[in-house]
Write a structure and sequence with these properties.
Layout (H helix, E strand, L loop, with lengths): L14 E6 L10 H9 L2 E4 L16 E4 L11 H13 L4 E5 L9 H10 L3 E5 L4 H7 L13 E6 L11 H11 L1 E6 L5 H9 L7 E6 L7 E6 L3 H7 L6 E5 L11 H12 L1
Parallel strand pairs: 1-4, 1-5, 2-3, 2-4, 6-7
Antiparallel strand pairs: 7-10, 8-9, 8-10
Length: about 270
């Protein structure tokens, strides 16, 4: 039988915990995330959360799939929020389990606002975001003392009613400040993104494409900004994928990658 907290107790405060499940590899979960998942009686789980992560859930936990994947039909956000509020008020220990980090393109900010407005206390557990995991898997640092003085995480998917990112202006800023650009959800609009960036960055600027970051079936390609579109389309990259643009994405950094990943997989076995 699923245990719940006593919602009739005057001291009870309905609570939802937003938990970042990381980029996919369950071994990249934080200890705090594992503890939160293990306590939950109700988990609302995004589509990009690997099934192995749910092995940490209690056997009697109710798992609700609320698929969220860029470019695909998703469960309406308002419906997800109503589910969280209802379950929390009923005394359940509610975890909203998201791929990556709740506050990096995870709509965590919106959920905090709406839940708080309904009198629901919110706690947040960070996760490793896909952009960092994608670069790290290839031994590519997002910042580097000699090559990148900062990093910009940006979405390639404009929300409804939004004009989206001014890629030309972003490219100019990246050139001037020596920034690495990490683009999430950019595959569908790769032509417009690349064209805008080329207005401010050289065509030979190093670039990477990484799909399914941190998972055993991860795919990646090294190219330049000038060949980015042809690489993405020609090699059939799809969602979820991350684009990394900047001097740190030098092809030389990929050399030790395959050996390191093979050693990591051997350790897991």
């Amino acid at each position: 039988m699923t245990a719940t907290r006593d919602a009739a107790n005057p001291a009870y405060a309905p609570t939802v915990t937003l938990v970042g499940a990381g980029p996919g590899d369950p071994e990249l979960l934080t200890l705090k995330a594992v503890r939160a998942i293990a306590r939950a009686t109700v988990l609302l789980v995004d589509d990009l959360v690997d099934d192995a992560v749910l092995q940490h859930a209690r056997p009697d936990a109710r798992i609700v799939r609320v698929g969220k994947r860029g470019g695909c039909r998703s469960t309406p956000q308002a419906f997800i929020e109503r589910l969280m509020i209802s379950a929390a008020r009923a005394g359940e220990t509610v975890v909203r389990l998201k791929g990556g980090d709740p506050f990096v393109f995870g709509r965590g900010g919106e959920e905090v606002e709406h839940l708080t407005a309904e009198g629901v206390h919110v706690e947040v557990v960070n996760g490793i975001t896909a952009g960092l995991a994608a670069a790290t898997s290839l031994n590519v640092p997002l910042t580097h003392r000699d090559h990148a003085h900062g990093v910009v995480l940006v979405t390639g998917h404009a929300g409804a009613g939004s004009d989206g990112t001014d890629w030309q202006a972003l490219a100019a800023a990246a050139r001037q400040a020596r920034l690495t650009l990490v683009v999430y959800m950019g595959v569908a609009g790769i032509e417009a993104i690349a064209a805008g960036l080329l207005a401010g960055l050289d065509a030979d600027t190093p670039a990477l494409v990484v799909q399914h970051a941190s998972l055993a079936h991860q795919r990646q390609a090294s190219c330049t900004l000038g060949t980015l579109c042809a690489t993405v389309r020609g090699q059939g990259f799809g969602s979820p994928a991350v684009l990394v643009v900047g001097d740190v994405a030098n092809a030389a950094a990929l050399v030790p990658c395959d050996a390191r990943r093979a050693a990591g997989q051997a350790m897991k076995r």
